[in-house]
Amino acid sequence: LLVFLGLALPGTQGKVLSRCEMVRILRRNGFEGFVGTTVADWMCLVKYESGYNTKAYNNNGPSRDYGVFQINSKYWCNDGKTSGSKNACHISCSQLLNDNLEDDIKCAKKIAREARGLTPWYGWKNHCRGRNLSSYVKGC
């Protein structure tokens, strides 16, 4: 629910990628087999985290999530608002809100590598883990 509320905020209408466009981006950037995940895993994650919207933004109270992968400001990026931000991806959170996904991909892979999977993302844990996700990549 929070993700969808975030998408409804003014000024958050970025580029909403098509399902197959997102599949192509993930395949091109080596997500198939990355830390034991599939492109279908990532597709489900992105659907539930951001609805494929490059400018998705969600306020979690003390921190915020940014971009298509909903990368959190407490640990991974710096938004200048989150107290004690670790900024482990060494990036401004605002860079995660543009249509260039290069930095988003680099940071998402760092998160997955460190976690050895997709467990940091609640969208994936609650909607995707352990399910048949073939429909997310079918026909692409």
From TrEMBL:
<dbReference type="InterPro" id="IPR023346">
    <property type="entry name" value="Lysozyme-like_dom_sf"/>
</dbReference>
<dbReference type="InterPro" id="IPR000974">
    <property type="entry name" value="Glyco_hydro_22_lys"/>
</dbReference>
<keyword id="KW-1015">Disulfide bond</keyword>
<keyword id="KW-0964">Secreted</keyword>
<protein>
    <recommendedName>
        <fullName>lysozyme</fullName>
        <ecNumber>3.2.1.17</ecNumber>
    </recommendedName>
</protein>
<dbReference type="GO" id="GO:0031640">
    <property type="term" value="P:killing of cells of another organism"/>
</dbReference>
<dbReference type="InterPro" id="IPR019799">
    <property type="entry name" value="Glyco_hydro_22_CS"/>
</dbReference>
<keyword id="KW-0378">Hydrolase</keyword>
<dbReference type="GO" id="GO:0050829">
    <property type="term" value="P:defense response to Gram-negative bacterium"/>
</dbReference>
<comment type="similarity">
    <text>Belongs to the glycosyl hydrolase 22 family.</text>
</comment>
<dbReference type="GO" id="GO:0016998">
    <property type="term" value="P:cell wall macromolecule catabolic process"/>
</dbReference>
<dbReference type="GO" id="GO:0003796">
    <property type="term" value="F:lysozyme activity"/>
</dbReference>
<keyword id="KW-0326">Glycosidase</keyword>
<dbReference type="InterPro" id="IPR001916">
    <property type="entry name" value="Glyco_hydro_22"/>
</dbReference>
<dbReference type="Pfam" id="PF00062">
    <property type="entry name" value="Lys"/>
</dbReference>
<dbReference type="GO" id="GO:0005576">
    <property type="term" value="C:extracellular region"/>
</dbReference>
<dbReference type="GO" id="GO:0050830">
    <property type="term" value="P:defense response to Gram-positive bacterium"/>
</dbReference>
<keyword id="KW-0081">Bacteriolytic enzyme</keyword>
<keyword id="KW-0929">Antimicrobial</keyword>
<feature type="domain" description="Glycosyl hydrolases family 22 (GH22)">
    <location>
        <begin position="89"/>
        <end position="107"/>
    </location>
</feature>
